[in-house]
Request: fold
Amino acid sequence: MTLIRTDPRRAGPTALGILIPHGTKTIVILRPRSLEWDLLAARWDGDRAQPPQFCTFERDQAAIVARQLIATLERAIMERVCPVETFGDPASQRLEIWLRGGDLVWIVCRRAPGQAYQPVLFNSHEEAVRAGEQLASLVWPAPDVRQEYYFNTQNLR
Reply:
């Protein structure tokens, strides 16, 4: 298996963090340390007229979602199906990057401490593809790459 669980304090600069902030209702964050974005879980029914809705979870459910995310990534690696995709309208230059994971999509959002998460809008198809390839190298690593991940529910930074 190419995904290796590690302690958050020992995780390297390219590790994937799965963060669950404090609270009885909370979000689940996928944080690729080496990138400037976080990914947040959202639900989307496939209707292009309706945007996806970011999810909040009861604390116990958030832990289940976090474990399911890792299982989804492991399955994608084993099945050789990249879960990263661009989404949007290339003509209007409003493209997003999503990671498909079961009944959730994980939307790339800019990290901006103290501000609400908002999806990153890429200005061109080429820019979105380059960013998607960066993300894919971490969440869908080559078979010979050992990708670290960790869970953090305590000291979020």
Observations:
- The chain has two helices and eleven strands.
- The longest strand covers residues 94-101.
- The longest helix spans residues 59-79.
